[in-house]
Amino acid sequence: MLGAAAYAVTIFLLLPTLVIAPMSVGPERYLRFPPNGFSLRWYAEYFADPDWVNATLFSLEVGIIATLAATVIGTMLALALVRGRLPGKGLIELLVIGPVIVPHIALAVAMFLVFEQLRLTGTLLGFAMAHSILALPFVVFTVLAALYRFDADLERAAVSCGASPLRTFRHVTLPLIAPGVVSAALFAFIISFDEAVVSFFISNLDRKTLPRKMFEDIDYNISPTLAAVATMLTLLTVTALVGSHLVKSRLDRRTRSAEP
Amino acid sequence: MVQPVEVSSRSVGIGIRGIVKRFGSVTAVDGVSLTVEPGEFLALLGPSGSGKTTILMAIAGFEYPDEGQILVGGEDVTWTPPYQRNLGMVFQKYTLFPHMSVLENIAFPLKMRGVGRAEREERARTALATVRLDGFGERKPSQLSGGQQQRVAIARAIVYKPRVLLMDEPLSALDKNLREEMQIETKQLQREIGVTVVFVTHDQTEALTMADRVAVLDHGRLQQIGTPHELYEAPKSAFVAGFIGETNFWQGVARGAAAAGGSVSVELADGAVVEATAVDAVAARAKLRVAIRPERLSLTAPGQGLLTAHVQQEIYSGNATTLLLSTPSGQGLKLRLPAGGAMRGPAMGDLVGLRWAPQDARAFGSAT
User: Fold this and answer.
1) Cβ–Cβ of A161/B156 closer than 8 Å?
2) Inter-chain contact B97–A158, Cβ cutoff 8 Å?
3) What is the DSSP string of A71-118?
4) Is residue B97 part of a domain?
5) B44 part of a folded domain
């Protein structure tokens, strides 16, 4: 009974996403459901339009840089929170959750005002910084969860074997929290790639991310290309999630704990 | 025949000088000094909160003392980071790296010391043979039993020929039979390779079985250090007498003054007077606790012994029979009869007389 309800809710939530796919293959110039034919012309249109392709490439660049930055900084932060003897841990934890609690739109306005002053709007650096900040809390909490499951005595064992703190991290801690770090990185990438609100504010005419470009498209010409892009985005996200799940379960199996 | 890893020529002593360690308002270790001889097996024994683990962690370098000094082989290592101390350590849990094979685990300390791959593997295999696990090298730790995992942990700790091997309750995760087996095996291994061992345990039987000397700790203070025989036969405080083995205690008052080691008559609460040996100098009328081991009490006819008591219960355990006795004042006592004695023990409810040699009854000042 409860299972059936859960499935019903899931389908209800997924339905809009599922509707977009058939709409993207309609042959006509406007969005229509159900489509009265099958055509891939809107997909071709997307690939032929340098505006779409540039926005996609820019989103990828931003996503990769933000992922790297958020994953490295977030992992170090999580380690410091769990292992470090730093004062004011509670305050730092609170600050890390900040970007999740503060309304997105407020964050976006604030970033716009600051970035405008620093001439960072519409730059790769600006976007990468903004998205790193947005992704950071998710990375920190994913890695924290992995660290709490990890037996800290293994680090002591490594140190007693003569491994410096850095080598202990490289040879013992990192391989064992790798599943958590990999999911954190994918999380970060998806957050950056999907991010629309902040991007809306800090884009300019020639440098914009894919979600920003999609907004524009809605404003000027609602073409089925939009549906095609949305479908591809969904597929990419699902692929990333499934991929991360596979990588994670493989790593998990490799690093299964020694507990009897 | 197994080729032991040779470390004997390198084993060194440890000096602990006036260690104090506080955690907030709690003083975990309160001025402990002791010396471990090269090649000696020393057990740190005490109840939880006695500071034994903190002392071990200070030797290992995972805790830095607030006061005092730690010397390993005459060298002051008080402030040396743990990964530079060159000590082997075996933890309570097996702490094998789950993502590495058994052989990789054992070779890890060698890798950290820049030993080449071929030599690493050869030495790891030798260490694996030393703990009698040849042929298990390719397995993952999760494929081994608890006892095997702990042997791998020992192999990992001795593979780089450390000067000292530190063990933090390494057998407490094992079940009873395996634990007893591993106690003997670990002791044997220590003799073979001659390494200095500091072994933390809360199990007094384990300490007596394995150690050359035992340091008994309570409330962060060293109570007594000595051979198992010394601790059992000549405890210096009521705490040690009660903690090592079983002991009957009587409360009483000294009838006269006595020098340390002299004989003293103690008047018990019910007016009975018993002869005991004073551990420290005793003033007349001082409050005393008299300790006597259950197996040092012997039975005699009622009225002929130094005390009389009723038999409350008889507990038969194969190699011995324990009688639970009660004196007229209601004091409970345990008496142990070895198995195979010609005489059949008394029945429940019988009145019996008790005898003992005065040197077996030890009188401690009440303050301790």
Assistant:
1) yes
2) yes
3) HHHHHHHHHHHHH---TTHHHHHHHHHHHHHS-HHHHHHHHHHHHHHT
4) yes
5) yes
Q: Mark which of B233, B263, B290 sits at the end of a domain.
A: B233
Query: Are the beta carbons of A164 and B157 separated by less than 8 Å?
Result: no
Query: Does the beta-carbon distance from A162 to B141 stay under 8 Å?
Result: no
Mean pLDDT taken over chain A: 87
CB contact under 8 A, A255 and B99: yes
Q: Note the pLDDT of residue B357.
A: 87
Among candidates B89, B145, B149 on the partner chain, residue whose Cβ is nearest the Cβ of A160: B89
Q: Is A170 on the interface with B (CB under 8 A)?
A: no
Mean pLDDT of B104-125: 94
* B93·A151 Cβ contact <8 A: yes
Which pLDDT band holds residue A58 (cuts at 50, 70, 90)?
very high
The answer to whether residue B306 sits within a structural domain is yes
Cβ atoms of residues B101 and B133 within 8 Å: no
Domain that holds residue A229: 2-254
pLDDT band at B366 (very low <50, low <70, confident <90, very high): low
Q: In B70-116, which ranges are continuous DSSP H helix?
A: 102-112
Clarify whether residues B184 and B266 are in a common domain: no
Q: How many helices (H) and strands (E) does chain B have?
A: 8, 20
Q: Is B24 on the interface with A (CB under 8 A)?
A: no
pTM for this one? 0.81
What's residue B3's pLDDT?
A: 47
Chain A residues with CB inside 8 Å of B156's CB? 157, 161
Cβ–Cβ gap B82/A159 under 8 Å: yes
Q: What CATH code is carried by the domain that includes residue A191? A: 1.10.3720.10
Give the domain extent around B300.
246-365
Q: Would A259 be classed as within a structural domain? A: no
* Cα–Cα distance measured from residue B65 to residue B86, given in angstroms and rounded to the nearest whole number: 19
- Same domain for B226 and B80: yes
DSSP single-letter state for residue B46: -
Q: Do residue B258 and residue B215 come from a single domain?
A: no
Interface residue B178 vs chain A (CB under 8 A): no
Option in A153, A160, A172 nearest B60 (CB):
A160
3-state secondary structure of B75: strand
Q: Are residues B150 and B259 in the same domain?
A: no
- Phi, psi (deg, nearest 5) at residue A35: -70, 150
Q: Give the tens place of pLDDT for each residue, A73-108.
A: 999 999 999 988 778 888 888 888 888 888 989 999
- CATH number of the domain that B287 lies in? 2.40.50.140
Asked if B99 and A160 come within 8 Å (Cβ–Cβ), the reply is: no
pLDDT-based confidence at B8, cuts 50/70/90?
Answer: very low
Residue with tokens 């004989």: B263
Who among A164, A255, A258 is closest to B83 (CB)? A164
B60 chain-A contacts, CB cut-off 8 A: 160
Chain A residue numbers touching B140 (CB-CB < 8 A): 256
Q: Is B114 within 8 Å of chain A by CB?
A: no
Is A241 inside a domain boundary? yes
How far does the CA of residue B220 sit from the closest CA of chain A (Å)? 23
- Total domains in the fold of chain B: 2
CA proximity to B90, closest of B44, B156, B14: B156
Whether residue B109 lies within 8 A of chain A, CB to CB, comes out as: yes
**Same domain membership, residue B111 and residue B85:** yes
Locate the chain B residue with the closest alpha carbon to A170. Answer: B112
Kindly state whether residue A260 falls inside one of the protein's structural domains: no
Question: In chain A, how many domains are there?
Answer: 1
pLDDT tens digits for range B240-280 = 998 998 899 988 888 888 888 888 888 887 778 888 888 88
Q: Same domain for B24 and B90?
A: yes
For residues B306, B308, B311 and B314, what is the CA-based torsion angle, rounded to 10 degrees? 0
Compute the distance between CA of residue B52 and CA of residue B29 in angstroms, rounded to an integer. Answer: 8
